[in-house]
Amino acid sequence: MKKVAIIGYAQHPILKNAGALNEVELIMPVVHQLFDDLGIGQKDIDFTCSGSCDYLQGAAFAFVEGLSAIQTNPPIKESHVEMDAAWAMYESMLKIQMGDAQTALIYGFGKSSPGDLNAIISLQMDPYYISPLWPDRVSLAALQARVLLDQNIITKEQMLTTVVEARANSKNNRNALITDLINESDYFSHAMISSPLNNLDCPPISDGSSAMIIASEEKAYEFTDQPIWIEGIDHRIESSNLGARDLSTSATLQASINQLDLENIKFDIAELHTQFSHEVPFLKSLLNLQDVPTNLSGGPLIGNVMMCAGLDAIGKTYESLKDNQLKHGLAHATSGPCLQHNMLVHLETQK
Amino acid sequence: MIQAGVIGVGQTKYDAKRRDVSMAGLVREAIDNAMLSANLDWDAVDAVILGKAPDMFEGVIMPELYLADAIGAVGKPVLRVHTAGSVGGSTAVIAASHVCSGQFKTVLTVTFEKQSESNATWALSPRYPYSPHINAGAGGYFAPFIREYIRRYEAPEHIGWKVAAKDRQNALKNPLAHLHIPGIDEKMVSDTPMLWEPLRYLESCPSSDGACAMVITAKDQVGSRNVAWIKGMAVRSEGTLSAGRDEVNPQAGIDCAKDIYNQAGITNPFNEIDCAEIYVPFSWYEPMWLENLGFCDLGEGWKLTDEDATAIDGEIPFNMSGGVLSSNPIGASGMIRFGEAALQVMGLAEDHQVEDAKIAMGHAYGGAAQFFAMWIVSSSLD
Questions:
Q1: Most buried in the list A239, B130, B244, B261, measured by CB within 10 Å?
Q2: Does A107 lie at the interface with B, CB-CB under 8 angstroms?
Q3: Does the pTM exceed 0.95?
């Protein structure tokens, strides 16, 4: 299989409310930071792919607006997924592997502050039977948290530890939105939003953008002496019917673990797209990461830009491997209620 | 690059309101037809690629989540593409890219729109913060480009009526088409009300419910199946407001066509392509795309249309199925073009088959005539 490497990643400071900054104004700084860091321009990019969600903007064609951030004259090979930009990276990787591109620019952007994210995300469900009940994302996550607690797969203490650690780790992340530390009594003094989740178990409403550049083996070393290789990648979706899923495990993650032969890899670090505190101990256990430093960036609990947070997990893993001379990193991206759709990415420093 | 081909195409019956099926039922209807025509077991499907236009057309966000079961994706990779009106075409290209990358042997791809669930003109008229609200819909947006085409090349007004009548006459040969208008002719088109000067009611595409699916597989998986080989495929985009952009003859369309012709070894598309399914949502886009895609010189497109070159028995038949003017489930409309091109070279287009079609082109465009996806399919690999 043709090798593909990440050669750059940039993240906009995560904002609580980007106000009048539009999508173009969010995207341009990260794209240009990447270009400047690598000393390249759009002419060096063979394929461009973005991830965004129209409903966050409140108007169709968010990605068309976003494209104004990119130089498109002469016209470019370009595409868009209405998914987290992690999947835009996946599509770009396929383009490189088929030989249609040697380099690809990926970006994702999202502004959750203007709308009501709970109401918006409830439109992800079955439109005839479930969405009319307006199930909000926190309540859906709480269903899984309750299953995990009731079956003793995780503990409330692990959720508390996750929240405390996320905030402590925010010091590693110059773009973090939430940086104030909390202790145990702070945690338990917060009222439940949807039992067993209080608002510290949930990610903050966030605005922002991220961008990444990947390249073929032939091109990677032209632009950097520190490419990080996509050694393995796999993603799978589960049923939309929550009642038909066993929320105490993840059949798709299990399949991906086998597909990528993860059991035999000793990971140095992991970054998980875990939007709710209970998901961290759950996934650490599923992925056998108990002894692996996880979400050193703080993860989505200290800043959760919709349509970017999955790409950010991959980008933060990339940064961590590169900056700390580590060998193996695992990144996770997700979509849908209760971790319905999961992607695992095994990044490796040496080829 | 790994060679890939289409081994199954499935479509729904297109209609204004498919009240007999849910969204899941609609996509499954197309998928079942594709899987039957490919004669394939579900186990053989390695990934599912779903495309559709804006989520606001139905009010379901990221519908691959809700549709995971209906599209047979549970336990498999699924990707959701959205590239405006070109999405049906770009989804086919991305599906084929899955196979050509070497990561997947066989993929299922499906696109749909159930326009009756919402109102397309409302959803296409976004009110952006800090911007004036145009509220134009698609027809109002494209009409100025068309007026400029007519001005540049002094095209007579009956050209638009002619395309509208020709595509609807073709639709009478396609039982799946949404619009079946008995006795349709230029006079009937010209008698309908003006919507967006110069476009009259019957020069505009309908709003349809429908889905289209295809099975794409690698050369070594084909066996003895009937195949439409993918000889060239490409996408191109240009910005909405690039300086110097020619909306009438977009550079992205020119570049995209050149790319697929180069891949397929085509030097004279007019002579070498047997028939084409081209995205013509408003009548005048037929002559405009004839020129943009290099079938003739600038200013000559309307003359080809006038000379019946694009009729089903003409020199370069366009939109034998009735085209977007006869069926328009927006998210699927591009894939219908790609799928109908495949059906032609597989010899499966039944009453709207072009005799002896060996090489066919599928085309889709979207946004403000700025996003393009195209492919060339052939009955033989050589």
A1: B261
A2: no
A3: yes
